[in-house]
Amino acid sequence: MNVTVLGAGSMGHGIAQVSAMAGNEVVVRDIEQDIVDDGLAAIENNLDGAIERDMIDDAEKSEIIDRLTGTTDLEAAVRDADLVIEAAPENMELKKDIFTDVDEYAPADAIIGTNTSSLSVTELVSVLDDPTRAIGIHFFNPAHIMELVEIIVAEQTADQTLEFAKEYTESIKKVGVVVNDFPGFSSSRLGAIQAAESIRMVQEGVATPEGIDTSMELGYNHPMGPLTLADHTGLDVNLEVLQYLREELGERFKPPQLLKKKVRAGKLGRKTGEGFYVYEDGEKVGMSDE
User: Fold this and answer.
1) Tell me, what's the pLDDT at 187?
2) For residue 191, what are the domain limits?
3) 180 is in an annotated binding site
């Protein structure tokens, strides 16, 4: 199968990697060649890690790399695709623009998926001439490790499109959970409310970020505490999701003032070196002073 991933960032390159590891021919497209190159380099680095853990060998790595192609040309990226997965930033108008372009250049029978974590799939796919072939395929970060994929059924999604998405998810060795298209779906809605309450607890002085994270990791068996997770996904992303859910679902999703303060200060988490924790070379080295 030919898979095209639109976006070579943290989510996009992970989706491309697992698709290629499953034997698919994969094209990764982004708007700048440097971004494409960085994404392909990240995949190679991930595969080197898999070799070190005896999950694959050098020959398998070479085969996976050979199935990957990078480009900045959207038309070339999608023209032979059986499946297109959009993995652009969480912006409705941006995603609609991408879908409009995909609709023009991709084969009429290609399945079109979006990796949105919270936006309305029903609204997003409405720009397509045939929205019955579109569906949400929501991966979790890091996509090459996390097992879960939310399969989001839009109002327009055809039964055969849903079955295709289920089969693809199984083929890449992920666990698919089918949800209907509601704001935040299931995971983002629950994750957002947990992150918001955890940030409010820090804001009110209930406990430190480390204390809250440790409580959830040891008391509830979470592999990663909510504030570490917020730093990992990006505090700007968390803010955008909460703002959207507040608009759609009400004041219980009101973003905490501390979250707004950190985003305004450019302290977005792991990707900027500081959020609720401080990071050096991507590794947590302490808590933020704020």
Assistant:
1) 87
2) 186-278
3) no
